[in-house]
Write a structure and sequence with these properties.
- The chain has 420 residues and is an alpha+beta fold.
- Helix content is 45%, strand content 15%.
- The chain is globular and about 70 Å long.
- The two termini are 19 Å apart.
Length: 420
Amino acid sequence: MKLKKIISIVMATAMILGLAACGNSETSGDGSKKIVRVATWREYDKEYYEEVERRFEEKYPQYDVQLEFNTDEVSYEQNIQTDLVMESAPDVFDLHASGNIQHYGESGLIFDQSDLTWIENISKEAKETVTWDGKTYAFPLNYNYFGFIFNKDIFTEVGVEVPKTPEELVAVVNKLKDAGYNGISYSGQTNGTKVIDAALLIEMGAEKYSQLMEGIDDGSVIDITSYEGVETALQTVQYYTQNDIWYKGYRDTSYEPSLSLFAQKKTAIVFCGAYIFGEKETQMPGINAGFFPIPTNSANGISYAEVGQCSCINAKSENLEGAKAWVEFLATKEISEYLCGSSRTMSTLEDAVPKFEEAQMLLDCATGYSLFKSSYTDNSEWYDKEWRELKEGIFYLGDNCNQHIQIINDQLKKADLKNK
């Protein structure tokens, strides 16, 4: 059942049964301070959030921040959805940058932050990931590069340099194999066919990629190659798979084993998010690691990136001013640099540069970044099977991309979504 329908059903049930809660308790026990409830699933950032809480309450003594953590991301998001429609949700809560934010906003469940002052300081690319129909429904705290983490010492030992083209990457992997190392480690269970999305975003740019996906869904696109870069991106991934650059069994490999192979130096390259630098002491101890974007035929040096957590404001918050103050505080240069620096992620603010060892390296390794935007799709059931098979066939099997392109184009013409 689609999220939009689920939300509608839950809201209707709440109205019929009279179960809508009264909302949050606005003041603390002694009535002296207004409570601001803040929820996130990122308990591993607990120490950092508690420091932000301390600084916030020091600046705004009229507020009492209550932090809520739930590390089970599935139950966390389910609880947020239920609490929103029952009007008992936290004042501020983090979500992944996904179509859920779009629907919560369009359903009137989360506050439109378009008039908050942080809008003026954020990058255009980051703002676009949480904006629909001109309304910005969340503050994207950070973003992560996704690409290849590599062992610098092994590269030096084998005598290879960071590749910039598909041909160079294949040559590097082959030379590493000759030296006794395996192909690129990849977690198919965690990342799925993310390499396809990455190649498309790098070749097309975020705006064109979003237009393509929206056009597929509304029926205005019935030939995916009508967008420049699509065929080139798919051919690049096909080329990689056909040249056997991946570690064997990568489709069924989970996240931890993919990193373990890299940590044990069984491979010199792993596909991962740059957030791993924040866990390097435990996930890759003693390894002198670097990063490079996925090489594509354009060789433009752009890196694929994803927004991390996004701070949303409960539209029915009884302490809306306190909620807005918290988000605005998160969006200050000082706090952004502190949070992103502590978690080893990149800031979405134009003037903020996190202070951690690899920050400048990440900025220098790419000429820019292309952020993935997830939107809700009304008609995906008409083409999802063909689109999924295209991505899986090319990435996992090295199938001829032209055959899959023809299959999905035929399906889009048959579905005639423009007239649905």
